[in-house]
Write a structure and sequence with these properties.
Elements: H1 5-23, H2 33-40, H3 44-50, H4 54-74, H5 83-93, H6 96-102, H7 110-125, H8 135-155, H9 162-181, H10 184-195
Helix pairs in contact: 1-2, 4-5, 4-7, 5-9
């Protein structure tokens, strides 16, 4: 007899919740199925009805998060199409779970998954042409820098407002580090000297 969809959803969610509570305590590689089942309140056979192993559960969780972030980006109204709107929208989906996944106990490949899933959407969002030389390197740089910044912000207890951190991200992405920390005239003078 097949389980009712609401029971299936509830059971699966209990395993997901158990995973999140365990990843706060230890790395993914050290989370055992027995711990997950104990925390979720089910037995091992129930776990295996839904997932192959801990990494299958992780893949399920990451797919859900990526889909949530994609939908937020795709639902930005065209009239609000700007980098700051994009950053703010992505922040709406950047809950504690995303920070756990990119943190020390998380999945080191999650950023690669984020890049492969979200960059095409962002590229379309900003109408970035496909033929920019070395575009993949630019994406890699921005992806690593932005997630590093977000992770640091989270580790510091989000001591800046969402508006402040998203503005900083936008300024860094559009103007670079030197223009952010150095007075504009000093940067202009340096560039002039380099040209001669």
């Amino acid at each position: 007899m097949r389980k009712q969809p609401e029971i299936t959803k509830k059971t699966r969610q209990r395993f997901v919740d158990a995973f999140w509570s365990l990843i706060k305590e230890k790395p993914i590689a050290k989370i055992a199925v027995s711990e997950l089942t104990r925390r979720a309140g089910y037995n091992r056979s129930t776990f295996y009805e839904y997932f192959l192993d801990t990494y299958d559960l992780l893949a399920y969780i990451e797919a859900q998060l990526l889909e949530e972030i994609k939908q937020i980006i795709l639902n930005i109204p065209p009239e609000k199409n700007s980098p700051i709107t994009l950053f703010k929208s992505v922040f709406a989906a950047m809950n504690e779970k995303v920070y756990l996944l990119v943190g020390t106990n998380g999945d080191s490949s999650f950023l690669t998954k984020v890049k492969s899933e979200l960059i095409p959407i962002v590229q379309t969002y900003f109408r970035i042409p496909n033929d920019i030389p070395n575009f993949d390197y630019l994406v890699c740089f921005v992806n690593s820098a932005m997630f590093g910044l977000l992770q640091h912000w989270n580790e510091k207890g989000k001591d800046m407002s969402t508006e402040e951190i998203s503005t900083m991200m936008q300024n860094l992405a559009l103007n670079g580090l030197i223009s952010y920390i150095a007075p504009q005239n000093a940067v202009s003078a340096e560039c002039s000297e380099m040209d001669t």
